[in-house]
## 1
Amino acid sequence: MTDYVDRHGLSVAAPLADLIERKVLLGVTPDAFWSGYAAMLRDLMPVNAALLAKREELQSQIDAWHLARKGREIDAEDYRAFLTEIGYLEPEPAPFEISVENVDAEIASIAGPQLVVPVMNARFALNAANARWGSLYDALYGTDAIPGAPEGKGFDAARGAKVIAWARAHLDKVAPLAGGSWANVEAMVPTGETVLITTGGLETGLADPAQFAGTTAGGGIMLRKNGLLIEVVVDRTSPIGKNDPAGISDVRLESAVTAIQDCEDSVAAVDAEDKCVVYDNWLGLMDGTLRDSFEKGGAVMTRRLNPDVIYTDPNGQKVTHPGRAVLLVRNVGHLMTTDAVMIDGKETPEGMLDAAVTVAAAMHDLARNDRKNSRAGSIYVVKPKMHGPEEVAFADRLYGRVEQLLGLPAHTVKLGVMDEERRTSANLAACIKAVKHRCVFINTGFLDRTGDEIHTSMQGGAVIPKTEMQDAVWLDAYEAGNVDTGLACGFAGQAQIGKGMWAKPDMMAEMLEVKIGHPKAGANTAWVPSPTAATLHATHYHQVNVAALQQQFKTREKASKEALLTLPLMHGRNLSDDEVTHELDNACQSILGYVVRWVDQGVGCSKVPDINDVSLMEDRATLRISSQYLANWMLHGVCSGDEIDASLRRMAPKVDAQNADDPAYIPMAPGFDGIAFKAARDLIFKGMAQPSGYTEPLLHAARRAAKARAGQYRDGR
C-alpha cells in the first residue's frame, strides 16, 4: 500500500515526493513546485480530457460513415471530403519554416544512428548514452555481419582476419587513399595538416586531405566523413595491433550520436514505485551520477558514463569531443493517468507528471560545467501518440507551463513530434507549425502508425494480412511524405527527420543490406536496438551524404495525400483456411510472448522469439498491431472468436517452451487462467473498445494485478 502526502491539495505518493524534493528540484523550492504543479493540473486537465474526447468523437463518426456504406467501394474523393467535414483533415498551412534556437549539432546537422532504450533499466540506459563510440572490429566479429561465427573458446584468428579485411575495405570506400589500399597500410605519420601513409612500400596520403581530423594518443588518427568521426586506433601492445604492420588495433566509429531514453513504450511503469525508478535513472544521466554494477566472468563491474574523447587537430590544438550520445527523453502521451499523483481522489495525467519531472531533472545538466548532455543549453523531449495539430499545440502549451513552473527561459524545452498516428501524418505540416519554435525532431513509426491505421478503419472492412502491410499503398506515401514535409518546414540543418526501428537485433547482415535505405530516403537519423547495431548502421551514414540528398529532395514531387489515406483492405479477397490459421498463430504467439513478460515480470521491451524462434524486438507498438489486426479479422468474419481462442491455446505452450530457461517465468499452459494469458486474450477480444487501439489500459491493469499477487505471495498470504 502506497503512502501519500498532501502537497497543495494534491495527494502525492510519498516516495515520489521524497525523490522530487530531495534530489530532482534545482533552483526551485518544493513549495513553489507543488503549488505551480497543482495549478497547472487544474488548468490543463480539462483541456487534456477534451482532446481525448475529440479522438473518440472522430472515431465514432468514422465508424458510422463506414457502417452506412457497408459493402460499397470507398470513393476516395467522398472519403476525403468527409474527413475534412468532420475536422479530421485540416487545411494545409501556408508555407513556413521552423524557428528553433540553441539546438546541438548532433540534432541539427549531424546525420547518424539513434538508439532507443528503456530508461527504467540502468545498464541499458548507460549503454545507450555510451554508444556514441563503438568498435567496428567488435561489432563485426560478434555478429552475423560477417558470415559464420567464431570457432573455439579463444580468439578465432581466421575470423579476425575477415573482420580486419571488412573494416579496411570500408575505409577504402569512405576515406580512400590517394594510392594503394588501407589493407596494406604499414605506417601513419601525421605531418602538420595532413597524414603521410605508407602502403605497399609507397608513401601516399588521403585522397581527400580534408578528411584528416587529427591524431590521438598512441599514434592513431582521426578521420571525418559526412560529419562523423572515425578513429583508426594504434596500439602495438594489443593482441591485434602487435601483429599489424602499422600497429592498427581497431577502427572506432562515432555511432549513436543521439539516443532516446524512453519512459513510454519500452517500459512497464505502472505505479509510483516504477515511476521513481524511471525518474531517478533519468536524473542520474543528467547529473552524471548514474551507475550500474553487475557480475561478469566472476568479477563485479561497474558501468558509468564515458568521459569525453580527446584528440589533437591538424593545427596542434587539443579538441574535446563528446564521448556520449546527446540524450532525448521520451515522455508518455496524453492518454494515460497515474495514481502517483492524485487530485480530488482521481488519477492525474501521467504525461504531465513526466513533463514536470523529466524537465526538472534535466536542469541538472544545464547547471553542469563539463560532460554536458546539451552544450547548447536545451532540454530534448520526445512526445509520442499525439493525434493532430490541436494535441501538438497542447503539448507546446504544456511544456511552456513547465518552463514557467521551473523558471526556465521560453523554448528551453525542444520537442520531438512522433509522426505515428494517422491524424498526425495526414496533417503533419499543421502539427509542426503548432510547435514550430520547439520542434527539432519528427520520425515515422511504422508500427504504431499501422496499429492506428487498422483501428481508425476498423469498420471499413477486413485489413490485408499483416505480412503484406509493408507493401500497402499508404505506407510509401507516409514514409516519403514525412521527409517531404520536414524538408518543406525547414528541417534541413535544423532538426532531425527520423525513421523507425530495426526489429531484428541478431540479424546484422540483413540490417547492413536493408537499413541503408533510411539515409537514402533522406532521413538524417534512424532507430537501432543496440550499441552494436548503432556502430554498424553508422557505416551507412559514411556512404550516404544525407544533407546533399535532402537538398535534392526539396524539389521532388510531393507524396500523395490520396495514397496516404488509402485503406489497406482486402476488398472481398478470400484466404484459405491454412493462410488464416498461419496468420492467427503468428499473431497470437507474438501477443503472448510479449504480454507474458510485460505482465508477470515488468519487461517493457525485449527480444521475443517469434513463431519461427527468430528473436524480434517487441514493444507495445508491435502489440498494438497484432491485437488490432485480430480484432479486425474477428469483426469481419475472417476468423471466429473460437478460432482465436484455439490459436491462443496452441501458442501458449510454445511460448512457455521458449521461456523454459527463465527461472522467473510463470507458464501459461495448461491452465490458461493466469493474469497474463487473460490480458493477452482481452487485448484481442476487447480491442475495438480500446482508445485508439492502445494496449496500455489493459496492460497496466494486468501488471498492477500481477504486482499485487506477487506482494501477497511475499507476505505469505
## 2
Amino acid sequence: MTQDFNIQSVAIVGAGAAGLTTLFELLHTKKDGSTTIAYDSNGEIDKPKIHNTDPAFTKIVSFEQNSQVGGIWSPSFDDPDVIPQELFDTEKYDDPWVLKPKINVPIEISVEGQNYSHSKPLVTGDVDSYNSKWAKSGIYRHLFSNVPGRYLRTSFIPYRQHRPSNSLLHPLVTNYEVTDGLLSFVKRFDLQRYIKLSSEIVEIIKVDNKWRLTIKETSGDKVRWYTELFDGVIVSTGHYSIPYLPRLPGLSKWNANFKSSVFHSKSFRDPSIFKDKNVLFVGTGLSGLDILQYAFPIARSVTVSRSVNKQEIYPWLSKAAVSDGIIVKPHVEEFKPDENRKIIFEDGTSIENVDYVVFSTGYHWHYPFLNEKDTGVSVLTAGHKRVPDGSSMVDGLFLNIFTIRDPTLTFNGVTLTPLKWPSFEITASAIAGVWTNKTRLPSSREQLDYSDKKKKDVGQNLVYHYYPPGFFKEYVEQLRGYLPNGRNPSDIYDTNHLDDLKNSFTVAENLFYQYKGGRLPITDSAEYLQGNKL
C-alpha cells in the first residue's frame, strides 16, 4: 500500500476554474480528513457554517501566470495569442517544445547557498523575445457554451437560470455569464488573497522530499525570480493553452506571404473578416463548426478539410460538417502560396484563391516545468505521429489525477467530459481525501496495472481521458471512496438534470443551422440570444 502523507503546504499551478475549485476544496478540508463544506436548504454553500478551525493544509498558494484569475474564462477579446512567423520558420511548429520551450532558470538561482525568496527575489529584465506564455484565452465575444450552464459551475457557485426555458439559448449560456459566476465566487470567498498573479512556474523539482518551485513573477519589464518549497503540488493548467497545428508542406511560406490569413481557432475574434472571402476550415470539431456557423452566411465559399467519414464527439457535429453548401475535402496535402493561393488535398483535388485558413485542430498537453525523471509523467504520441499533438494522452497518472511515481504531485483538469466543472470538483475532493489519509491509494503496481489495462482497452490517445456523460457516473463511483468524510458525490454531480445535456445538443444544433442559414444576426450574437425566444 502507499505511504501515509504529511502534506501541510500545497502549491496549485493555475487559477482557472480547476485551480480555483481546488483552492476552495483544500481550504475547507480538516486535518482529520473531513470537510467543513456544507449546504443550506437551497443546495447552496452555507457560508456561516464552513469556517475551518483545524485546516489540514496550513499553507496554500495558487500561482497564476496571467494578471487576473479565470484561465480561459478570463477573456482577451482584443489581443489573442498567435503563432509568430519565427516559429513557422522552424518548420517544427507542430512540436510543443518549439512552441513553448522550457524556460531557462537564471544560473544565480541554482548557486549553492543562495536563497531567493518572494521577499528577496533575483530581479532581471524580461528576456522573452516573443510572447511564449500562451496564457491568453481563446474566448471571443460571440461565444456561447456548448454544454448547459448548470454544468459550467461547481456546487460552490449558485445555479441561476438567467432566461426563460423557451429562449433561443437555454440551457446554454454566454461566456459573460460563466466569467461573472467565477469572478463572483472568488470575491464572495475572498480567494484572491491565496493567489499570486503574473507568476509563471518555470521549474518543479524534488529536493529533500519537498517540491521546489521556481517562480518567474513579471511586473512591467522586470522579472522577479524566486524559489519556494511545498509538500504537495496540484497542476491545474488546463488543456486549452498551446494550439496544435499539423506540420504541412508550404504552410510556413503561406503564412509569411499572406500575413494573418492562417490562424488556429484560439486566435479567432471577429466574424466580419470572412465577408466575401474563400475560407478553408481544417478540422470540424466544436470550435471549428462554431466559427464556421458565422463564416458561412457571409463568405464567398466555405470548404472543410476533415478525415473521411470521421465521427465527431457529438453526432450532430458530424452531420453539420458536411451539410448543404459546404465543400468537403480530405486532409490537406500541400499549400502552394505561389500558385494562385492554391491548396492541394490528399485525393489530388485542389482549391484556389483561398483567403483564410482556420485550424480547429486541438491543443497540446504540455508541462515544460516538469521533468519525467522526478515525476514519471510524459505526454505520449498517439499512433504513428511524429510528435505529441491534440490527440495525445498524459501518461503516468492514476485516474487522471495522482502521479503513480509520486502522488504528492497531482493533476486537476486532465479528465475530459462534458461535465467538466463537476469533474474539477470531484478531482479536488479526491486529492483532499487522499492527502489527509482519509483513505489510501492502491499500490503503485496496482495503479500501473490499471493504467496498462485501460491503454489496451481504449488506446494510448486522448480517449484515455474522456468520459461521455454515460460513463462519467462510473468515474464518480471510482473516486467516491477517496473523498473526505462529509463529502457526497450527489452534492457535486447533479444527476437530476442530465436531460439538460441532451437538450443542449439540440439547441446547439438548431442555432448552428440558424446562423449558417443567415436567420440569426451575427453581430453581438451572445447578447442577442439572451433576450430572444424560440
## 3
Amino acid sequence: MPNLKAQYFNLKNLAAVFALLLFFGCASIQTPQGGPKDNKPPKVVSMIPKNQTRNFNAKKILIQFDEFFKIQNETKEFSISPELEKAPILKIKKKILEITMPDTLEKNTTYTLNFGKAIADINEANVIKNLSYVFSTGNEIDSLSLSGKVTNSLTGDFEKEATVFILPVERDSLFGKRRPSIYTLTDSAGNYKLNNLRKGTYKVYALKESTGGGDKIYQQSSDEVGYLKEPLVIDKNIDNINLQVFKETAPDFRVLDKKINTDGSISFSFTQQLKQPQLTVTEPAALDVSKKVLFNKTNDTAKVWLNDLSFDSVKVAIQDQGKLLQTVNLTRGKKDTYTRDLTPADNAASGKLNPFQTFTLTFTLPVNSADASKITLLEDSVKRTNFELVKDSINFLQYHIKYPWKIKKSYDIKFNAGTFTGIFNSKNKDFTKKFILDPKENYATLGLNIEVPDTTKNYIVEFINEKKAPIKSFLINKKTTITFANYPAGKYFIRVIYDDNKNGIWDTGNVKSGTQPEKIWYSPEEKSLKPNWERIDNLTIPPKP
C-alpha cells in the first residue's frame, strides 16, 4: 500500500520550493527606472491654415503639436504684429493650440504671430523658442529680414536669449513703455534673425533682462540694453547688424536701497558711482562724530556703523563733491534685536597663503581692540611667540598677523574667545585658522612694453583672469612699460579700454543721449604665466575700432 503520508510531505515540500522560487523570482523584479530626462520641446505637426498663407480669411488657426503642452506667460511672450485692438484668443485643446482671430484685420497686410517662449511641454517645461506664424490678408507677404549678433560690451561674450526688437521710427517713443510686437531671441552664439519685415525705417534695440524680468520692457535700473544710434532703413535683407548690450548709468542719482541690517549696520546702494562721496548723520546729530563709513571700490554702495542704536529714526545726508544729493530716513523697531558675529574671513585661499602677502583677517564689523595674548600660533605644532598683530591703518575691518612664514610648514592659529572686541562690546568666540605658505616658485611676473596709437588719448590697460574679472589696471597715454608682478601661475588676458573722456574708468552708454559705451579691445594672445617665470612681452594697442 502506498505511503500516503510520505507522498503528502513530498507534495508539500515541492509546493514550498515552488513558492520560494516564485518569491525570489518576483523579488528580483525591480521597478523600471526613469529614462533620460526629456529636454526636447514640443514639435509642430501641422498648421491650419498653413504658415505663410496668402489671402488669409480664416476665423481660427490650429497648430498641432506632437505632445501635450501648456501656455506660459502669455501676456509677456505672445504678440501679434501689427498690433490689433483686440488680441487673438489662445486656447488649448489636447495637443492643438486654437487661435481665434478678431474681425479687425487690415486688408493687404502681413501679420506675424510671435510666441516667444510661451509654448512649453507639460512635464519639463521645455520651451519652443521663436515659434511664429505668418499670414497675409493680401496677395503678398512681407519678406525682408534683419540679422546679426548680440554681445556684451564689457566682456565681449555672446548674449544668449537676449531680445532683439525693432520699432518703427514713428513709434520709437514707446521704447521702455510698452513691449514690442516685432522681436526675436538670440541663440547660444548670440545670433538673431528677424523675418517677414515690412519695408520701412526702424530703431533697432537689444535687451538683456535681469532675472525675474521677461516683459520685454526696458527697465534702466536692472536691465542691459544695446541699440543702433541712427535709424535703420530696411528695404532689403540686411545682415551683420551687431549690437552690444551694456548696463546704463542712471541719469539721476537716487538711493536704490536702504536698510538696517541684522547686525545693526546700515546699508545703502545708489544708482550712480560717486566720485567723492560723504555720508553725514544729521539726526540725531550726536551720532555723526563716532560713525564709521565704508564705501565699495566703485562708490555705489556704502555701509555705516553707529555706536548707539537707541534711536527711533535716523536721517543720513548723502553728498558727492560737497553737493547734497539726497537725505534719507530710516526707522528702527523698538523691539529690534541684533546678532553680531566676529568670526573673520582670511586671505589664505584654499589653505594657502600668498608668499607676497601678509596674513589678513577681515571682519564684518569694526573691531575696536585686540588682545594678542589670546592668540596661539603653532608652526608644525610648535608654539611660536614672535608674531605681531597689527591693525590696518586704513581699513577698520582688517587686522594683520606678521610672522616669518616658512614653506613646508603647517600653521594653526588659535584665537581664543575675546581676542577681538568689536562695536557694542561684541566679542569673538573661539576660532582657528589653518594654512601653509605657498612657495614663491608657484608665482610669476609679466612685463609689457606698450605702444599706443595716439599719445593725445588715454588708455586703461587691465590684467584680467579667465572669468574676465580685472586684477590690476594701469592708466597710460604714451609708450611705456608696465609690470604685473607676483601672480599665481595660470591663464590671464589683457584688455584695453579706450578712455575717451580721460576719467580713468569705463563709461557705459546712454540711450536718451545717444551715447555708446567706451570701446574695449581684447588682446587675442593668452598671457599664460608658468611657475617661477618672469618675462617681458610687447603689446601694440590698435587704433580705436
## 4
Amino acid sequence: MLLSDNHRHCFLLTGSIHDVLSDFFRLSKHLSTPLIYAHDVSQYNALNHSIFHNSDVRTCSFKQARQELGSTHDAILVDLTHGVSASALAILAGTVRGNGVFAIALPKGDWLSVVDLDLPRYLPWPYESHQIESSFKRFLLDQLHRDSSPFQTLASDQIHPLPALPLMESLTTLTEEQTEAQSCLFEEHAKSYVLIAPRGRGKSTLLGDSLAKMLKAGKKVALTAPNQDAIKTLKARFEQVLKEVDLDSELPFFAPDALLANPAHWDTLFVDEAAMIPVPLLMALNQKAEHSLFSTTDYGYEGAGKGFGIRFCRYLAAQSTPNNMPFLTLTLSMPIRWGGNDPLEHWINECFFLAPNQNVVLNEADTPSIPQTYKVIANNAWLDRPDLLARTFQLLVSAHYQTSPDNLRWILDDPSVSAYLSLQGSAVRCVAIMTAEGQLPDALSLAVLQGTRRPRGHLIPQSLLAHEGIEDAGRYRYWRISRIATHQSEQNKGLASQLLDQIEIAAQEQCDFLSTSFAATPDVVGFWLKNGFIPVRLGTTKDQASGCYSLMMVKPLNEIARQKTAIWHQDYRANLAINLPRDYQDIDAHLARMLSADFLEAKPLTGAVTDKDKQDLALFVNHHRPYLTIRAQLTRLVNTQLARHQLSHSHAHFSLLNTVITQPAHEIDFVAFGLKTKKHVEKHLKSIVGELLLTKF
C-alpha cells in the first residue's frame, strides 16, 4: 500500500538468486523500470533471460553506481551476497522516490562466511579476501538488524505487489524553500552563490527551473557538471518550463573544460554536483560569469561535500566584489523526493555517519580537569566502540574532501590501517589514519621497478620504485599518514603536530620512515615541513579530486633512513630544478619556492648526467618506466652530450629531442614528428634514448 507519509519501503530479501529475483519482481510488479545492482549481475541476467523475461529491468555493477547521481527510481534491488560497496549502497538509496522499493539481498545462512569479492580492493598485498574476517560486514549486518532499522524481512509467501506509483507531475510548483532560494538568486546581490542541501531536496529541479526562467528573461546562461548523466532531473525540469512558456531552446550545457576554453562570458553560470569538480577548476569557472551558482550536497554520497564547503567557500568569501557581496549560501532542508523524517534516509546517514557532525569538542579553558589523551584503535576493535567510530568518522567526513562511505569499510577491514586519536574526554579532537607499508620481497620490488607488477597498496614504496627508480625502496618499513584531520573549532592549536609526535614515538622501533602523500597546497606543504617531513617526489599529473599535484614526503627515523632520505631529496631537487619551470608552470611562485628549498644542505646541483640518470633511462628504454618520470634525466643526458659534442644539431632526431627537453610535456605536438599515438611516441623515444645511452661518456 502507499504510505501516507511518502516514505520508502525497505526489505531484506534472502535466499538463492532465483528466490530473490522472484520476490523482487513480485514486489515491483506495478512499479516502473526496476533496477538491480550487484558485484556481478551475470547470474541475474541469465535467470531473467531464461525464466522471468522481464524486459523492463536494468542490471548494473557497483562500479556504475555513481552514474545514478541525479536519477530517480521506483524500485532498486542491491545484492550484497558476494560483495559490499558502501558508497554504492548510499548512492542508490538516495535515488529511490517516496513509496518506492529499496531492497537488499542477502543469502540464507551465514553471510559473514561468504567470500566477499569486493573486499580485495581494500586490502594491500599480500592479503586476500579469504584471509580476512570482515569487520565491516559484521558492522553492516548489525545495522540492518538493529531495532531502528527500516528493513523488513519477509518470507516469499508474505510478499505482495506494491501499488503503482502516481506519475511524477510534469510541472510541480516550487516549494516555499525553493521559491525563496530562487528569488535570492534572481536578485543578484552576490557575485557567487552556493546551494547546499542533502539528497532529494530538489536542487536539480530548482536549477533547471531557474535556468529556463533566466533564459526566458533574456539572460545569457550556461550550465556545467561533471557529466551529463548527473543532470537528468535538471534537464527535464528545464525542458518542461520552456514548454510551458512556449520557448524553444537547447539546454546550454558545457563540459567544465569546454566551458573554460570558450571565450564567452555569461551573466550566470550554474555548476551542478560542484563537489565532484576539483576546487582549482571551480575557481576558474567562477571567473566565467558575472554571477555563479555552485550546487552540492553538504554530506553524503560524493564523499566531498564538507571539504568543498570549507575550502571553496573560504575562497569565495575572499573575493573582491565592489558592487556585490562575495557570496551567499542557499539551503534546502525539506525532502521532495520522499517524505520528511524518512527512515531509510536516517538509516543511511546513521549507518555511514554521513549526517552533519555531532562531535562535541570540549574547550580546554572551560574544562581544565579533563586531560588530553591518545588512543590507537584498528579493525575489529572499532566494533566494541561504536560511539568512538561515529565521532572519528564524522570528523573525517567534515574535514577531508575525499572521505566517502567506502572509507568506512577500508578503516574497518584493511589490516594495515590504524587510527591514532587525540581525545579530550569522549571528544575526538584530532585523528590520523596510518597505513603500514613496505618490506616487499626483492623479486616483487624488481617487478615494480620494471613496471610489470602493481601490487595493491604500498603507495610510498611502489611510487619510489616505479616512478623514481629507487632500487631498494621496497625493503624499508613505512608508516604512511593517509589522512589527518582536526575538528574545525580546534585547528591552529598544534593538535595535529602533537598527534604526529605520538605516532613517531610509537613508530621508532617498528618502521624506518614516517611518510605522507597529499595534494600540494602551500598551507598543507607548510604543515608537513614544520613537522620535519622532507619532499622526495612531486607527481607528474594533477589529482582529479583536488586539482593539485601530489607531493610525497618522508621523515627518517634511523640513521640508514636519514642517509637514504638525503640521497632521495638530492635527486628530487635535481629533477625539480629542470621540471618545475618547464612542466609545472601552473604552480604559483610561493608554492614553487617551498617545493624547491633544500632542507638537508645537500651538495650543489650540477646539471650533469649521473649514473642514477642512466639507470632511470635504461628502465624507460628496456622496461615500463613512465616517460613523464624521466624527462629531467633525458634533459641532462641530451645537454651533457651536446656539451661534449657527442650530439649535434645535425643528428637525425635532434629536433624531436630539443622539443622534448624544452617544451612543457602537455604542449608537445608529437604528430608534427609523425607520431600519432601514445604507443608510437613511446616506442620511438625508447629507440632514440637507447641509442644515446650506447655512447660512452
